[in-house]
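Data availability (excerpt). The following record was deposited with the supplementary files.
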Amino acid sequence: ADPATARHALREARRTLGRHGAVYIGPAMGSKWAANRFKGPYLRNTLWDLGYSVDTIETAVDWPQVKPLMHAMEQAARDVFAPYGEPVHAFTHLSHVYPQGSSIYAQYVWPTAAGGFAPNFERWQKLKRAVAAQIAAHGGTVSHQHGVGRDHAAHLVDEKGPLGMATLAGLCRHFDPHGIMNPGKLLQDGGPWAD
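Predicted structure:
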């Protein structure tokens, strides 16, 4: 947007949000993020050493579904860990806003299970599946900006449907006929060129 439109949008957003109790903090959060954005892996490793697992799941959805989806994602995470008698802490915020909707950026922290990799990987998979199911049920996208890849590819069909998946496969066949660009990452059925 041009600067005048951006200034007008900011004024209107501040006015509207202020009526609902929001406090404008200026660029402080963005500046903090920019200064610390590469420290995430160190925090993750430190949390692991202290007995906690952490993951981030992001999506985007139309405005009418933002609040319901945020609550559903957090509840799905709590439901996964309830049988273990363990809490999961969900930190959810909107990271990108658009006229149509917003991205939802959720970070989860939970106690690491005893027993090494296998039980923790299983819990992480349950978390991903449960949250992804809520994203699909609320019309969200499998990924806002982080991409699909192996972690989310299994959930892509919930978003795109059979026709969308066939379209993606057709595009991959056309633009990557030899299957050299990340085979098996986007479409897990043997390659993007598979029928």
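Summary of structural features: DSSP finds six helices and three strands in the chain.
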